[in-house]
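3.2 Worked example (two chains)
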Amino acid sequence: MPTITIKADKAADPTREALQAEQALTPGGVSLIDGDSLRQRGVSNLADMLRYTPGLWAAGGSTGDSVFLSSRGSNLDATNYDGNGMRMLQDGLPVSAADGNNHNRDVDPMSARYAIVARGANALTYGASTLGGAIDFITPTARDGAPNEVLVGAGSFGERQGRVTLGTVSGAFDGLVTAETRRYDGFRGHQQQERTSLYANGGWQLGDRVSTRVYLSAIDNDQELPGGLTRQQWLDNPRQGSAEAIAGDYQYNVKTWRLANKTVWDIDADSQLTVGLSVENQQLFHPIVYAPPFFSLLIDTEQRTVGSTVRYQRRMGAHDLLVGLNWAQTTVDGGNDSYTPGGARTRFAVVDNKADNLELFVMDRWQFAPNWTLVYGAQAVTTRREVATSNLEGDYDSLNPRVGLIRQLTPDAQLFANISRVYEAPTLYELEDETPGGPPNTLLDAMSGTVFEVGARGQKALGGGNRWNWDLAVYYTKLRNEILSRDDPTAPGTSLSINADDTVHAGVEAQVGGSFAMGHSGRHRLEPLVNLTLNHFRFRNDPLYGNNTLPAAPKLALRAEMIYRHASGFFAGPTLDVVSSRWADFANTYRVDSYTLWGLRAGFTAKDWEVFAEARNLGDKQYVSMFSVRDRAGANDAILTPGAPRSLYVGARLKF
């Protein structure tokens, strides 16, 4: 008789299965990122991590960690210090401040086992009251199979980093700790960075149905800021630091620690209760404006955030009910100083700000017929802001309903649609900014609107081990009172915030990938991956800006790769970035050019080790990565942040 070989599938991963089920039960754009895949390419910030996530515009900034992040048109004011519009979570607990500032520099993508990105109103599952949605970073644990490992990496412009992870399981207890360090000299003047981090978690099984886990992280991140360049400076020498940044010794130094706990009680086979609490402290030292003898600014503050969440989920026949509550409070103390680099400081403004945020959300997933699921729910938000420097305080309240429909075409393919209300209150930073055109101490209005979305996702086996997958979403949002901040042309470094009457945010988000055998042996495969985002962000009959295009995000962003893989573990292939032109001002008079970048990555993966090399911008293209936004930008405005020139990154991973 012929020999019959039986191969076991890869061990089931309950965490991944739960996240995939969450994705399949959401009638809108949701993406799942596998942290293991990040170890086969250069990843130093969120822009690298989110490279193939549709609907997001993530651009690297002035240092390795600095990222401008926009999801479905959130955060288009492009003020680098105030990254709002996207709720950041770790294991379902908040990393964002209570006012919505997401502080994305304090999230290390390499410390996540998975990340799930819920775009726009699809973040109702997390109760997030933000325009752009939410990202939940799932921490690896020793109990779920995270290996002991060493990661080392190096790259152009003095980049070097290393991580060591050790874990253990002993009866009802498990623990995991990661120590990380990173150094970066930068391709521009005055761009050095030094970061050290510690991440740890420990879990206890308190019986058959109850488990609890404690999370601890500490980050010490010091980075120089090279400042913005004028267009002529960028053309002449994109590697230079601005004279103002060098003279003023611009920096962004943050010391952070965070302690969190999550307890899960499996009440019975159909119901679960989750309770979480987190405490975070950030100390910010931030010299950012130096224009003597007229004005200088050094921000020296301490921010404390307490967050909590309660989630109850119950399955009742054809219904899957979720009830949740999020509460958070952030206080910011300290002050704004005038300064001389390395010398005297004089406080001219005391910072004493506070934000509270309460979100109550209810959602039901009702499978009312075979292959049909109705998803409906609502979110109630009440939040308060107190800004001492502007003598402002006020409350914001809203009820945000949502209804969606999922049609399961096959076990692996579905159509979806939803109509939802989106809502976001202003951050403390936005309220601190001056508001032109109105009386003093006038509160900004919250942003709100209605979004319509349709789409499809799935995968299909083609025989012979071949397969392809797709994820497509099309959305249209009518938005009122969008908060837009722009640099004050009379006082560089000072922003002005306004509410725009009516704006439109619409777009197409698509990701297509696959794996295809070359020949009959199956030892050679091609794996293409394409992420395409088309944006349509505009004012709508604005009295000042008419129907101008909103700045910061491109109309088209395409990221792609074509990877050849051999059964031995070798892989290699080209990468491609195509980004259309963008406006840098609301008046649409200053255009930032489009660009196309080519790259190449390769590596080898074995059972217990892997190595990779990645070359970026092989054509050494001169391009602008991100920029500050103005009302009407002038030719001599120093607003441009150059993108990295030709560069090479290598890394290795050892599991033991």
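3.2.1 Second chain
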Amino acid sequence: MTKQPQHGVLNLRYAQALVAGLCAAGLRDLVLSPGSRSSPLALAFLRQPAISSQVVVDERSAAFLALGMAKAARRPVALLATSGSAVANWLPAVVEADLAAVPLLLLSADRPPELVGWGASQTIDQQRLFGAHLRACHSPGPPAPDFAVDYLHSLARRVLAECCSPLPGPVQLNLAFREPLLPVGALPAGDSGGGQAVVPVGRPRLLPDRQLVAECGAAISGRPGVIVCGGDDYPPGFAAAVSALARQLDCPLLAEPLSNLRFGGHDRSRICVHYDAFLRPPSALAARRPEWLLRCGSFPVTRTLQDWLHANRTARHIVLGADSRWRDPLHCAAAVIQGDPLAVCNDWQAMPLQAAPPGWRDAFAHAETQLAALAAAWRSREDFEGALIPALLDELPTGHRVFCGSSLPIRDLDAFSGSGERALRFFGNRGVSGIDGNLSTALGVASTGPCVALLGDLTLQHDLTALAAAGGRDIVVVVINNGGGGIFEYLPVATLPEFERAWLTPQAVDLVAAAAAFGVAGERCASLGGFTTALRRALQRGGPTLLEVPIDRRRSVAQHRAFWQAAADVAGSRTGDRQAR
């Protein structure tokens, strides 16, 4: 009888074969959190030179950091954690990856099946943990002495392919190991994957229905309409293509910051970035009724644009998205084109599409010019995010990355970022739009190059321990500290007697001292000029820095409302009070 290898040797050989397969399939990044049950996989990854392994103690932070890496690199990133509640900490990031279509490979180490459901420590049902948020879940069981290497290599290619297509997102590979987890004594030589053919997994793009594209092109040709571009991971070349389409149709293009259309060397002559001011009813532009609306990517962030789209539900709505998601919360789409948006724009440009009637775009262009001048006049205001945000963006070099947190910062970025020639790349967690894990995600983005993170004080505190992973990353964390949940000041709950306790929730954390505790340089900026100077120093120095910008919340609210009133006067409306967004 052939002697069977002990579990420790078997586990490591199995893990080495799987990791070699993942490497050959194109995996290049892993974020792992320490644990016992995951030891065979952790060791196999750490000894695989072609895969970069980062260690993050907090599994929740590790998952969001991997999410940021995958967003920035546009390729799958793997996560590894031990069994039990460690894996459960991934859930918020998995939900975001699902709804934002970000490819994540979840490698969850598990107890063997004979321990699940029998009261063993650190044991839960991990195969059903993430439910409908997964693209696929595989649980091949504990390693068998006669395991097939070819099967593991094929499984590795499959899970990475499932992460990418047809709809990118998270895939779980649940891997059970019996004890002893690692060999006792000398470790066997590893499978580096050097002897197997490299078969990298690609990211195929969905081809649109050409007949539907042609029909929609005929429907918008020569008619007054508007292109609206929400946030999305658009393919390279899309900014130039959709801008050329707007020029061909002579229509306004309303571009959100996360569309990455506002900054760059492409034609921006039709792009509008001040729509949050000139589309507020009862302005003349808010009352204009286009015959068609082409909406690309995610649904808009701001309430003003959402309400304007709703007010134009009778127009022909054409929704364009790169994948199979049905992005029509207004339930009014006349057509949903599922396919590569770059290919769609190129097809339309190849058609003899006619421009809109003369004068259709003029009112939008005039309002854009007027509002840009008004915003420029307000750029010296203290305690006003409308001045802080352009001051921040003006200091960033071409190619810099900007991660914007949820809640009020993303809305102020939308309203006040402006537009420019320097190419900047913007990121945000808008799948679920939560404040959890925002700093960790920004650190993941910073793994691919210099990054600035613009966060609120509560958003930072929610993910404060992520600063432990900031070392070695070139990131400036700009914290707008307005003493709590400032966004709620613009909602009806602000009038309730319980408002401060249950919604505003001001905190007493010294953010600069907290940063120092994690070895991160910090500075509190008392003025707009002081912020600009501190930002320049941080960018020149490199590495991680936290800049806290205290904002007088009441003054900020008053200045916001004063700005919207001034904008309303410019846009010809009768009200300027900021709507709750």
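3.3 Remarks
The chain has three domains: 7-176, 210-366, 378-571.
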